[in-house]
Amino acid sequence: MQNQPIQKQDAFIIDFSAYQIVSCLKLFFLLLVICILHSCQSEKTTKNIRNYYYPVAEFMDGKVYEFKAVNDSLAPFYWYFRTTISRGDTIITSEYFDHNFIVQQLTNEEIVKNGVVLNDFYLYETDSITGQQKQNRVRVEVDNVYPFEVTDSTGLFLYKVFWRDYHQPNQKYRLIKNRHYMGEDTYTYKGQPLACVRFLNRELLEIEEVGFQEVTYNSVELYAQNIGLVYFRKEIEGNVVQEYELADIYDMTDLEEKFRETIE
Fold first, then answer.
1. How far apart are CA 83 and CA 55, in angstroms?
2. Which partner for 202 in 16, 140, 178, 222 could form a disulfide, CB atoms 3.0-4.6 Å apart?
3. What residue ranges do the domains of the chain occupy?
4. Residue in 156, 160, 154, 124 with CA at minimum distance from that of residue 141
5. Where does 48-263 sit in CATH, by number?
């Protein structure tokens, strides 16, 4: 009779050991699954796409990128890029000119270790009384412009800006852009096929005044190695499509000459 409690104790110890074995096995398999998942993630190769952004070192004296509509139904436009070094930081100033050679936008972007970020953004509106261009500051809420290191389309790069209408300050706008890297591609510029990277952008424009309105659209961008943006296609609600490609690159003096020819 005295051995019975000991036998129960031994039985309890045996049961507890079995429980421990099962628990350890569960923990082992859980750790195994985590290791496998981590291994799969580690196998995703990181690609450096810095050389597919604009060649900022060549913009010290300024360069103009002329874009034309693919189907010729829309007017051309121009981007003027200029690079400056400020306190050791590399800054790209970009000015957007419409087909009448009137500036519509100005941005200051900064080259950082892992990409390009937006420092300043201005829109230009024509004053209805004076006829002069007035600067309208845009608030930068999320500054991601272009990543240098990407893996696959699961990566998300967020961009967000906010501004008020110059003529109607109560009317507010917010643009939210989700950028996804979609892999390598090619595009032909001046008869030459170029190695490119492709981005898919999912964009949302919020418009708020008395009511609230949302406009969504998708766009595709191609950046060519040692050139930058060479093509984009934007599909807006209502089957509106904007499709442009890079037509030429030249100095600012050439753009000024185009302007003189136009007014003459």
1. 10
2. 178
3. 48-263
4. 160
5. 2.40.360.20
